[in-house]
Amino acid sequence: MTSAFFGLQTSLRGLLAQQQAIDVTGHNIANANTAGYSRQEAVLEPTPAYLIPANSVNNGSGAQLGSGVDVSSIQRVRDQFLDLQYRAQQMSLGDATARTTSLDQAQMAFNEPSDNGIQAQLSRFWDAWSAVANAPEDAGARAALVTGAQTLTSTFRAVSDQLTTVAQQAQDEYDSITGPAGDVANMASQLAGLNRAIGDAVVRGQQPNDLMDQRDQLIDRLSQLGQVSVTDTGDDRLRIDFGGVTLVDPSTPTGYTWPQTLTAPGGQLGALLDLASPTGPALTYRSELDAVADDLVTSVNALHTSTPFFDPAGTTAASINVVATTATVQTGSTGASGANDVAQAIAGLRGGTTDQMYQALVARVGVETQAAETAQSTAQSLSDAVDQRRQSVAGVSLDEEMMNLMRFQRGYQASARTMTTMDQMLDTLVNRTGTVGL
Amino acid sequence: MLMSSQLMLSDINEGYDRLTNLQQELSSGRSISKPSDNPYGTSRAMGLRGELAGLTQYQSNVDDGTGWLNTSDTALSQMSDVLQRARELLVQGGSDTADQTARNAIADEIDQLTDSVKQEANVQYAGKYVFSGTATDTQPYQLGTASDRYAGDAGTVTRTIGPGVQIPINSDIHQLLGDGQSAGDGKLLDTLRSISQNLRGGTTADADALRGTDLQSLDANLDTLNQIRADVGARTNRLAIASSRLSALQDNSTQLLSDTEDADMASTVTSYTTQQAAYNAALRAGATIVQSSLLDFLN
What we know:
A: mainly alpha; 3 domains; 3-stranded antiparallel beta sheet; two-stranded antiparallel sheet; rod-shaped; B: two-stranded antiparallel sheet; 7 helices; 70% helix
């Protein structure tokens, strides 16, 4: 037979469990706007039943009497598969964003279409040659030509410098992210610390939900920088592989290894490495600009036979240089003051290979920047879509929490009512029984 | 909660970006402000700009050439008048009714006319001698009787009036005027000097020469002059045709360039208004979505 006070204990368990559930709801509501927070739920389980021995019920067998409820654990509501998808999207978003930023800078370096870009300067250069052809005797026209040519070459050099800077900036950003005080080192050390704290808590039988949220959030951020893969090594400690090498390993004394050379970076770091490399877009554009400069130097010098117009050694965009002076500008193949066949031939280069190569280069820059922008907006949409799905699982819905609050409040009230009922029964038993005749 | 507000925020941001792009198009009046806006359009616009600059340059070359040819034509027309006058004088001087005094006076006038011819040959356009070949700094003929030798060269001065199209704008005055009596080439200066000499000579042979070889020679030179003038006229016409063709091409290229890189204001303004309405609607809806919650209905 159970104790007369058994029911009080059952009600108390109910009160405590409902109260804990209300606390969890309160925690959820408080964190409704916390980034990276996963909704938590109290898992309620019936407590082990009280065994009533045989012959206690009327058919002679025994029975199990329920003894109430307990909060068995407080769990994060989170879909690990969506995490994987989100991180994959974050990686391509990191890649696309770095590319778009860098390509946009490269495109700005060209400053086309405008009245001051290389195209406009080339056009003015040919105009200047035509002006010289129309007035070969005129030293003023020749001086204007030489000045215009110097402006053109300095524009070539400026664009070349800016393209070099774009590549250098990508390298600098890579170095700063992967450096000893960079984001990767910082995140790796935090992840190692969280791994340790989580493992310790799990060993003690606790569920460190908020620490796990922090760790997941760090992994999300890390996945934007590069390829991340995560393996559970037991006790909820994670080994994290980053860019092809093991970054965080709970089995090592420090918990992480950095700096290392990434073998397959991916993400933002992969994009930055590519952008900084000699085969990356900025430096490819620069070498194509070199080809344009080379074509200009070669074709003009081939016609300007007396002395070179451009420095024959300066066949890159960075080294192109005018060596002709007002006195050495050659207008005609004979020395006659009115001879203008050379000037006309050079002016006739307008719209030729130099212009065409340059236009093709700018079109290529445009196409590649546009492709990067499209890739970025696609990656952004996909990432947003996965994030929404993830938030629909892990995010806090205030409506849902308010409903839970009502549910648990009613549960609490009902448990209290049960307890009151028990109390009244005991009152009857203790204070009103055996008082006949008193 | 977080879910719906984030979704809304990204949609509103997208709407705002579209609005900003349209605003930029409206304020700059251009649909292409950087190559990635429209890579094909950019390279086309760059090509068209280059073409347009070329056409403008050809047009100015044509104008320059036309000025040069007009100067030549005026000089040649003056020369033609001079030659007509010389012919009248020659016929008058060759007549037996003219006595020696009259012939001497005529010879004086012929000498003056010779200088006029040289002066016309020395005409300048923009500080350049148009009849000196490519030696444009050199005066082709010295005035006076000291030398009748041509000082220019036989070079051709050309102007480019289209891609690879060059037109000569100078005329070879040397084939008309020649190098004078010392060369004995029968050209204009030689002829005029002979006429002057024969007028002053006074012999029967001189009188015969005036009526015979001098007259024939002068007529031959007049023919040459007319040929040169016709040639100049033909080239002036060619330049005029080139000029109107270049203007048409310029108009065409300007139109194409505008179609390629200028914003179509009517459609941009319409899109802008539509986009703004959509953006406002998104904001209003957003405000409603964010506000409503179960909390509003609990008490």
